[in-house]
Specification:
The complex is a heterotrimer of chains A (412), B (56) and C (280). Chain B has 1 helix and no strands. With 56 residues, chain B is mainly alpha-helical. The termini of chain B are far apart. Classes of the chains: A mainly alpha (412), B mainly alpha (56), C alpha+beta (280).
C-alpha cells in the first residue's frame, strides 16, 4: 500500500500491521493531548504541584529527555568535527532521537508555564543573568540546528529524492553540515550546562547549590559532560530496541562498539568528576550552610542514601567499567545492561537535581515536601514518549535511517 | 532582546549573551541561505534531474 | 540611585519580636485584605493557599512540662542577596526580569504582567515566600466591593508575594513630594498593614539605614557586614545562606534563635563565620 514510500530494497512489516501499531500508540498520545489541553485551558491547578513544590514531574522529564538526547550533538561533533567517519552509520538515528527529545522538551516547557501566551517574554525581556534564559535561547537555537540536521534525511525519502530541488538541497546541506554540527555542539555545551546551572546557582537551596568557575557552578560542567557521556547510551539503547523489534541487524558491531567505547570513557571521566564534586559539596559547601550529608537523605519516606548510591555506582561506575573494558563491551548482554543502566543513571541524576532539590527542607522548622503527580501530569509526561514512538517509527519506515541495513541484510 | 526593550543595559553580560546569540543566528541563517541559493542555481542548471530509482 | 545596598537610599525592613507574637494571625488577615489576595473555595490545603504573610508554629520539641511554643510570622524577606548587592536568590534567576530590586528602597518587586509563571523564583526562595496563582482569582459575592483600588489583583498563572505594602510607600512618597519634602518620608507615614494590625505590637517597620528609626535601634544592623544584627538577641532566618534578609527576628529564648538557622552537631554557640563576600 505504501511501498512506493519505503526505502528501496528495505523490508518493512505490512502496512495494516504498522497502522495498527501507530493507532494504539496514538490513543496514548491523544490521552496526553487531552491532559495538555486541560492544563492550558484550566491552568496548572490540574497538577498536584503546590507552592512548596513548584517543579512538576514533567520538568524532570524535560531535563531527562534533553540529557539522553545529548547523543545527537555529541555524535554529530565526533563525526563532523572530529571526523570519526564510522559514526555516519548511526548519526541519522542520533539526529532523529535528538529531534524528538528537543521538540518534546520545548512542548513540555510550553505546558509548564503558568501563562503560555507570554512564553515569548523569556526572549523579549530576557534577564541575561538567569540560567533559565540561557536554557531557553540555546534550546530553541539548538532545536533549529537539529531541524536543519533532520531535513536532509527527510529529503532522502524515495519519493522526495526524485524531485531535483530536494535532491540538490539535501546534497548541499550535507556539504555544509560540519558548520551546523559545530554550531550545534557549541549551543549544546551551553544549554546542557545551563540546565545544570539552573539547580547549581540556587544558593538558597543547599542541596542544589555548588560553587564553580566564574558565573557557572560546577553542575554546569557536570551536566554538559554527562549529556555527552550518557547521550550515546540512549542512542545505542534505541538502536538495540529497533534490532530487537524488527529482528534485524541494523548497525554493524564495530560502529556500536566504537560508540560504546567512547561513551564508556566519557562516563568514566564524568563519574570521577561527579564523585569529587559530591565529596567537596558534602564536606565543604553544605556544612558551611549548616547541613550534614545525611540531612539530605533522612527523615522522609522516599529519599534515602540509596539514591546517591544508585546514581553514582549503578548508573555511573558499573556502566563505565562495562563499556571501557573490551571483553565486557563486546559481550552482548553486558553491553545491553551497561547502556540501559547508563540511560537510567543520567535520568536519575536529573531527578535528583530537580525533584529532590524541591523536596529537601531548608528552614529548620520546615518539613520534607513529597508530592505525587496528578494523572494530568503523568499523561503529559507520557505524551512525548508516545509522540517519539510514532515519529521514530515513521522515520524508520519511510527514511533511510540505517545506511548499513541493506548490506547487513544481504550478508545474512 | 533588543536595545529598545526597557530592561536592556549596555554591559558585559548583554554583549556576551546577545553577541553569542546573534552570531549563532547569523551562522545558521547564512548557512541555510547559502544552501538554498546553491540549490536553486544547481536545479536551474539541470543538476539532479533524472535522479531517482524510477529513471535508472 | 546607587547600585548597591549600603548607600544613603532607604532600606526598608522589619523587626518581629517573637516573644510578643501570640500567633493570632491578624497580620495574615490584614495582609490578605490590604493586598487583594483571593480566596480558594476550599482552603484546607495550605500548600497552595496564597499567604504573603504566613505564621509558622515552632516548638522546642520537649515533652510536657518543658514544651515551649513560638509563632513566627514570615513575610517576604526582601533579601539583599550575596554581598547585599541586590542579587537576591529570586531576582537573579527570573528569566523575564519580572522581579526586580529597588535600590532606592531595598524592596524586591514583582511585576505581575511580566511574569509568565515559570516558578523558578519559587524554587530559588528558601523561605517559601513566593506564591503561585494556581486558580483564577475569585472573591465571595459582594467582596469585590472591598478590594483595594491601590493594589492590582493578579491573574491566574503568575507568581506573587509580599511587597512590603509598596503602594503605601508610593502614597507616602507622593505626599512628601507634594509637600516639598523631596523623598523625606516620616517613619509613621509608611507602615505595612501587618505592622499596624498586630495587636501585640510585635512587628516594627522602618528604614534600616536611618538610625532614628525604631527598626535600626532594635537590631543595630551592621552596614559593614551586610546588615547583620549587632544586637545579640536578634537574628535573621537562614543567615548562613547569605541571602541577607531585611526581616529580623528578636527573641530572648535561645532555642528560638537556634531554630532560625541550620547548625550541625556542636556548632550552636560557637562563633560561625559567614563570609559576606562579593558573591556573584
Amino acid at each position: 500500500m505504501d511501498s512506493a514510500l519505503i526505502p528501496k530494497g528495505a523490508r518493512r512489516c505490512p502496512f495494516p500491521v504498522f497502522a495498527t501499531g501507530i493507532a494504539v500508540v496514538s490513543v496514548v498520545l491523544l490521552w496526553g493531548v487531552f491532559a495538555m489541553v486541560l492544563c492550558w485551558l484550566k491552568g496548572l491547578n490540574q497538577t498536584n504541584m503546590n507552592d512548596y513544590y513548584g517543579f512538576a514531574l514533567w520538568i524532570w522529564a524535560d531535563l531527562a529527555v534533553i540529557a539522553i538526547g545529548g547523543g545527537a550533538f555529541f555524535t554529530g561533533l565526533l563525526k563532523y568535527v572530529f571526523g570519526i567517519d564510522e559514526l555516519k552509520n548511526i548519526i541519522n538515528l542520533a539526529v532523529v532521537i535528538g529531534f524528538i527529545c528537543y521538540s518534546s522538551a520545548l512542548l513540555i516547557l510550553a505546558i509548564d508555564i503558568g501563562q503560555p501566551l507570554r512564553g515569548w517574554f523569556i526572549f523579549w525581556h530576557a534577564n541575561v543573568h538567569s540560567m533559565l534564559t540561557e536554557v531557553a535561547f540555546c534550546l530553541s537555537l539548538y532545536f533549529s540546528v537539529l531541524t536543519i540536521e533532520f531535513i536532509p534525511l527527510i529529503l532522502e525519502n524515495r519519493q522526495l529524492d526524485k524531485v531535483p530541488f530536494f535532491h540538490n538541497l539535501s546534497h548541499n546541506m550535507h556539504g555544509v553540515m560540519a558548520v551546523f554540527a559545530a554550531t550545534g555542539a557549541f549551543l549544546s555545551c551551553f544549554h546542557q550546562g545551563s540546565l545544570g546551572g539552573v539547580a547549581g546557582v540556587l544558593y538558597g537551596r543547599p542541596f542544589a547549590y555548588r560553587e564553580g568557575l566564574l558565573v557557572w557552578p560546577w553542575t554546569f560542567f557536570l551536566f554538559t559532560w554527562s549529556a555527552a557521556a550518557y547521550g550515546p547510551c540512549f542512542t545505542l539503547t534505541v538502536c538495540k530496541m529497533f534490532e530487537g523489534i524488527t529482528r534485524k541487524k541494523l548497525v554493524k558491531d564495530n560502529v556500536i562498539h566504537l560508540l560504546a567505547k567512547i561513551s564508556g570513557w566519557m562516563i568514566t571521566t564524568y563519574i570521577i568528576a561527579k564523585i569529587i564534586d559530591t565529596i567537596y559539596w558534602a564536606g565543604v559547601t553544605a556544612p558551611e550552610m549548616g547541613f550534614s550529608l545525611m540531612d539530605f537523605y533522612s527523615d522522609n519516606a522516599f529519599y534515602g542514601i540509596w539514591i546517591l548510591f544508585a546514581e553514582i555506582v549503578l548508573g555511573g561506575i558499573v556502566p563505565a567499567v562495562f563499556l571501557t573494558v573490551k571483553r565486557f563491551r563486546e559481550n552482548k548482554k553486558l553491553l545491553l545492561v551497561a547502556i540501559i543502566l547508563g540511560t537510567l543513571g543520567v535520568c536519575l541524576n536529573r531527578w535528583v537535581m530537580v525533584l529532590q532539590v524541591m523536596a529537601v527542607p531548608v528552614m529548620s522548622f520546615d518539613t520534607w515536601a513529597l508530592y505525587i503527580p496528578s494523572w494530568q501530569e503523568v499523561a503529559t509526561t507520557i505524551l512525548p514518549v508516545a509522540y517519539g514512538v510514532i515519529l521514530i517509527s515513521l522515520a524508520y519506515r519511510y527514511l533511510p535511517m540505517f545506511p548499513q541495513e541493506q548490506e547487513l541484510y544481504d550478508s545474512k | 532582546m533588543f536595545p529598545f526593550c526597557f530592561e536592556w543595559v549596555w554591559d558585559a553580560g548583554h554583549y556576551l549573551f546577545f553577541g553569542g546569540m546573534w552570531y549563532t543566528i547569523s551562522i545558521l541563517g547564512l548557512g541555510m541561505t547559502f544552501c538554498l541559493l546553491k540549490t536553486i542555481v544547481d536545479t536551474l542548471n539541470g543538476k539532479g534531474a533524472g535522479h531517482g530509482d524510477d529513471h535508472h | 540611585m546607587t547600585q548597591d545596598n549600603h548607600g544613603k537610599a532607604h532600606k526598608y525592613g522589619m523587626v518581629i519580636d517573637l516573644d510578643k507574637c501570640t500567633g493570632c494571625g491578624s497580620c495574615m488577615v490584614a495582609c490578605m485584605s490590604e493586598n487583594n489576595v483571593p480566596f480558594k473555595e476550599n482552603e484546607t490545603d495550605k500548600k497552595d493557599s496564597i499567604t504573603w504573610m504566613k505564621v509558622f508554629k515552632l516548638t522546642n520539641g520537649k515533652p510536657f512540662p518543658d514544651i515551649d511554643t513560638c509563632y513566627l510570622p514570615r513575610p517576604c524577606m526582601h533579601c539583599g542577596g550575596k554581598g547585599d548587592h541586590g542579587h537576591s536568590p529570586c531576582i537573579s534567576v527570573c528569566p523575564a526580569t519580572a522581579t526586580d530590586y529597588g535600590y532606592d528602597t531595598g524592596i524586591v518587586s514583582q511585576i505581575y504582567t511580566r511574569c509568565f509563571g515559570c516558578r523558578y523564583c519559587m524554587g530559588a526562595c528558601p523561605y517559601h515566600a513566593r506564591y503561585f496563582n494556581w486558580w483564577d482569582p475569585k472573591w465571595p459575592d459582594g467582596m469585590e466591593e472591598y478590594l483595594s483600588p491601590d493594589v492590582s489583583p493578579r491573574m491566574r498563572g503568575v507568581v506573587e508575594k509580599c511587597s512590603f505594602c509598596y503602594h503605601r510607600y508610593q502614597e507616602a512618597r507622593d505626599r512628601a513630594y507634594h509637600e516639598e519634602r523631596r523623598d523625606h518620608i516620616e517613619e509613621g507615614e509608611y507602615q505595612t498593614a501587618c505592622t499596624q494590625a498586630c495587636p501585640a505590637g510585635a512587628i516594627t517597620f522602618g528604614d534600616l539605614n536611618n538610625p532614628e528609626h525604631e527598626v535600626y535601634k532594635l537590631v543595630k544592623p551592621d552596614p559593614h557586614n551586610c546588615g547583620r544584627p549587632r544586637e545579640p538577641k536578634a537574628f535573621r532566618l537562614l543567615e548562613r545562606l547569605q541571602t541577607n534578609p531585611k526581616v529580623y527576628y528578636i527573641s530572648e529564648r535561645e532555642w528560638v534563635r537556634k531554630a532560625g538557622d541550620n547548625y550541625r552537631k556542636g556548632e550552636w554557640g560557637k562563633e560561625i563565620k559567614v563570609s559576606h563576600g562579593k558573591g556573584h
